[in-house]
Amino acid sequence: MKQRGLAELEDVERRRTQRRSPAPAPASLSTALPPVGPQTRPNGQLYHPRMVGDLEDLAFLRDARSHREHVLLVGPPGTGKTALSEAAFVQDAVQGQHNGLETIVGTADTDVSDFVGTFVQNPTTGGFEWVSGPLIRSIENDVPLLVDEIALIDPRELTVLYALMDGRGELHVTQNPTLPPLKVGPNWFVVGACNPDVPGANLSDALLSRFHHHVEVTTDWDLAADLGVPLDLITVAKNLDSRRQQETYEGWIPQLRDALAFAGTARRYGQDFAVASLLRKCPSPDRTEFAEAMKDKFGEIAPLALGTRVPAGRR
């Protein structure tokens, strides 16, 4: 009897230990998310997927949506934050209704009415009619909401998203009391995109905590080379980025959008014209140092500017 009682106690303790010990996490879940593959954005441009951890970025965003895990994309302008967001959901587009998601571009003047909508006067009848904003449209169409340049919006105005993002999932539109409470569907979630280093950028802790995933978006220079960006420009950009990491450079660095524009300009007008245009695009406080970095690969070229009138023989 004593041996049986001891065995029972050991069995109880073993089961208790098993309950306390968490199940081992798989080393990688990348095989659980089949890649989406290249997608054509609404503007006709082809988006080439990239890796975020061990996952394809498009597959990751779509999976985050299915679990309503909101995603914040941060990085310099022109790295592809908006392009990624559009490409991830373009396959869900419904012609004449939406492109797979709704978008609002934030500014310092953006307020709640820009999200939910407002009453607009009908020029024919003179009466006022309710026009829904992108937030309400995203809920009605059950698609994601992209808040571009979210860090430029006054944090007090962004509280309109709090109840929707933290699990309550219901919007009460005080601006139009005739509207019933709107409940979000299974395909609704928020993607925020911003450059955290732009002057005036401000994201509250309350909002940051509601984004499950924070992802830095940088330029893929290997992709840039495949898309025809000259290797000399890629070398300059990489060198400047290396200097920035070593804290010996704090100025402007061209990103993918700038590099693609450079390549297109070079094909149409020649390399010197493209260099001059890029130098003029560089913010003036950084132009001298940036021009010095460019000179090693492209020679000394002045920033693009209008000159004298066209000679008579070329008119």
Offer a concise description of the structure.
This protein has 315 residues and is of the alpha/beta class.
SSE map:
Blueprint: H1 2-20, E1 39-40, E2 46-47, E3 51-52, E4 55-56, H2 57-66, E5 71-74, H3 81-89, E6 102-105, H4 112-116, E7 117-121, E8 128-132, H5 134-141, E9 145-148, H6 162-165, E10 170-171, E11 182-183, E12 190-194, H7 205-208, E13 213-216, H8 221-226, H9 231-245, H10 256-269, H11 271-281, H12 284-298
Parallel strand pairs: 5-12, 5-13, 6-9, 9-12
Antiparallel strand pairs: 1-2, 3-4, 7-8, 10-11
Helix pairs in contact: 2-3, 9-12, 10-11, 11-12
Description:
29% of the residues are buried. The radius of gyration is 26 Å and the shape is globular. The mean pLDDT is 91. The protein has helices at residues 2-20, 57-66, 81-89, 112-116, 134-141, 162-165, 205-208, 221-226, 231-245, 256-269, 271-281, 284-298, and strands spanning 39-40, 46-47, 51-52, 55-56, 71-74, 102-105, 117-121, 128-132, 145-148, 170-171, 182-183, 190-194, 213-216. The chain has twelve helices and 13 strands. Strand 1 (39-40) and strand 2 (46-47) form a beta hairpin. By secondary structure, the protein is of the alpha/beta class. Helix 2 crosses helix 3 (81-89), helix 9 (231-245) crosses helix 12 (284-298) and helix 11 runs antiparallel to helix 12 (284-298). The longest helix has 19 residues, at 2-20. A five-stranded parallel sheet has the order 6-9-12-5-13, sandwiched between helices. A two-stranded antiparallel sheet has the order 1-2. A two-stranded antiparallel ribbon has the order 3-4. InterPro entries: AAA+_ATPase, ATPase_dyneun-rel_AAA, CbbQ/NirQ/NorQ/GpvN, P-loop_NTPase. Residues 20-34 have a biased composition (Low complexity). Residues 1-45 are annotated as: Disordered. Residues 67-220 form the AAA+ ATPase domain. This is AAA+ ATPase domain-containing protein.
